[in-house]
Design brief:
With about 575 residues, the chain is an alpha+beta fold. It contains 13 helices and 27 strands. The strands form 6 sheets. It has a 10-stranded mixed sheet with strand order 1-2-4-3-5-6-9-10-13-14, with helices on both faces. Strands 15, 16, 19, 22 and 26 form a 5-stranded antiparallel sheet that branches.
């Protein structure tokens, strides 16, 4: 695995180096003073300038692209609140491995937000905003070197917020906006508590760097090359036409690349030395900075395995969230995003209005005209409803003993397809509807001959009356330790009504290759006993808001739902709730 990752990284770095050698020679010297770039008519509604300022270490210079409402200058005559994105993806020369050698102006990563929100419009009813993009250390026009979510980047986030809050064209109120990695930087802002940070909108973010790469010491398949990719992004130069200071800052400082690659691959535990500083789940507990969070239950990129722990660890009464059956998207995206038309990928068209009410309340001081729900949640049937929290307050966990047995750790098999290999425990057909809502947890006791390198995977299913198994939740882990031992596993959350006539099924097996890369131990794992706690609502939900199915939901239901034959030896008594009230 490490060899593959290093090979990919070196090959990609060579490609970036070829691009860099085509750029003109770099001239000029670094300065801590703001540098105003030539105005560029890139947006009809805004004027663009570039600036440099010191990062939290006092040495590294960070680069900012500033877009002011059209006609507003850089004085204190017309100050506005600031919407800020701190990102590795805002290089003028393209966001990741794409190139924009002949372009002009800032990276358009969030121009769709500016288009849809009209945030730069001075005539906007609740007031205009200034939009700022700051490159993380080592990325774009910022100097230094990335550390993939570590303290160097977290300090840079603090410096960026405080710089934006202190500018004469700023009211001192800063709201952070980002998706994915630059959603992670918003959560870094909550952890760092910089002066001026008034609100954060974080869309499909990372919560813990470890959990993006691993799940309980098992590598996620889709992130095998992630750390290598971000070293390539760091090494990527600016456009040949960028100003000299931008090009000097964008020159690679490769000393950190090996550190990141070695640290991330040597450390298999979330509380290990490399990953501990990249885990925001503990450093943000009790924070009161208002957060607007989105998290897809069906995410294929930034998974939901830490989302609810993070959100529910915050304090304050101003947090908001959308939890639904969507993938790695911005809440305002449509099927044809370029034309801004077609079905919304969240299945609901109210996101931008709600987001701007959130920003207007906390940055402009405008009391919302609409009382938006604290949480909107979309169940597996595509229906949206309002909740005060998630999991809901009437959720109760019910414990069931699972069948004992054995499986062979071959490192193969996808939980999505409900494989026959493994230990199944299946309920009798339900005589009333139940509503799964929350995160299951399971404890498995394995025998003493099981090696610490063996794999364990657990899936929870709805088995319909026509004998099709749909995966509701999943989880994987390495079986650390030696001797007979208990292994506990928190599984992924979902909101899933199950009708009468269906069954609940649980599979204990060796692998889930649909999302993880397993290294098989080729041994037999004897499960001596196991217990699972399944979350169910006690009250029915009948009041639904606007919303419908999503493209991701339709795709997911096509991926799972395979034919399944219930065998007599699988059936056991489940502890399940009574009829929904």
């Amino acid at each position: 695995m490490r060899t593959r990752l290093l090979t990919l990284f070196l090959a990609s770095l060579a490609l970036v180096a070829m691009v860099a050698t085509s750029a003109p020679a770099l001239t000029g010297s670094l300065s801590s003073a703001d540098v105003g770039a030539e105005q560029a008519a890139l947006r009809e509604d805004g004027d663009w300038t570039e600036h440099y300022f010191p990062a939290g270490d006092g040495v590294t210079m960070l680069h900012a692209d500033v877009i002011r409402p059209k006609g507003y200058d850089l004085t204190d005559a017309q100050p506005t609140p600031v919407v800020l994105t701190v990102s590795p993806y805002t290089n003028h020369n393209g966001s990741t491995t794409d190139l924009d050698l002949n372009g002009v102006g800032p990276n358009p990563r969030f121009f769709d937000f500016l288009d849809r929100s009209q945030a730069l419009d001075p005539a906007r009813e609740n007031g205009a905003y200034t939009y700022v993009m700051v490159d993380l250390p080592g990325d774009g026009g910022s100097g230094g070197c990335n550390d993939w979510g570590g303290l160097r980047e977290q300090d840079a986030v603090r410096a960026a917020v405080e710089w934006a809050a202190e500018q004469p064209w700023s009211t001192g109120k800063v709201g952070m906006l980002g998706k994915s990695y630059d959603g992670w930087t918003g959560l870094m802002g909550i952890a760092q508590q910089p002066k001026g940070l008034a609100a954060v909108a974080s869309l499909e973010p990372v919560y813990s760097g470890y959990r993006y790469i691993y799940n309980n010491s098992i590598h996620r398949s889709s992130t095998l090359a992630t750390l290598g990719l971000f070293q390539v992004i760091d090494a990527k130069p600016g456009r040949p036409g960028d100003e000299p200071q931008y090009l000097v800052n964008s020159a690679p400082q490769a000393w950190c690349y090996g550190v990141n690659l070695a640290g991330s691959n040597a450390d298999l535990y979330e509380n290990g030395p490399y990953w501990e500083e990249r885990n925001l789940l503990l450093t943000t507990i009790g924070r009161t900075t208002p957060l607007f969070l989105t998290q897809g239950f069906l995410e294929t990129n930034t998974l939901s395995d830490a989302a609810f722990q993070y959100y529910n660890g915050l304090a304050g009464s101003d947090n908001r969230a959308w939890f639904g059956q969507f993938d790695h998207i911005r809440g305002w995206e449509q099927q044809n995003e370029a034309a801004q038309e077609g079905d919304y990928l969240t299945g609901r068209d109210t996101f931008m209005d709600e987001l701007m009410r959130f920003f207007d309340e906390h940055l402009q001081g405008v009391t919302p005209s609409v009382d938006d729900a604290t949480v909107v949640v979309q169940d597996i049937r595509g229906r949206y409803r309002d909740e005060a929290q998630w999991p809901p307050a009437d959720m109760r966990s019910y414990s069931t003993s699972l069948n004992a047995g054995s499986y062979v750790d071959n490192g193969s098999g996808s939980l999505l397809t409900a494989p026959a290999d493994g230990i199944w425990t299946v309920s009798e057909p339900l005589d009333h509807d139940v509503w799964f809502a929350g995160e299951p947890s399971v404890t498995v006791r394995v025998d003493g001959d099981t090696p610490p390198t063996a794999n364990l995977a657990v899936g929870v299913y709805e088995i319909t009356s026509d004998n099709r198994a749909y995966m509701i939740s999943r989880g994987v882990t390495l079986l650390h330790g030696t001797g007979a031992r208990n292994v506990s596993l928190q599984m992924m959350g979902q909101d899933w009504p199950i009708p009468a006539g269906s069954r609940v099924g649980v599979l204990v097996t060796d692998a889930d290759t649909s999302q993880f890369t397993h290294v098989a131990s080729r041994t037999t794992v004897d499960v001596l006993s196991a217990d699972i706690r399944l979350p169910f609502l006690t009250r029915d939900r009948t009041d639904f808001g606007p919303g419908t199915t999503t493209a991701r939901l339709e795709q997911y239901m096509g991926q799972t739902g395979r034919g399944f034959a219930v065998q007599p030896g699988m059936v056991a008594d489940f502890t399940l709730p009574g009829p929904l009230q």
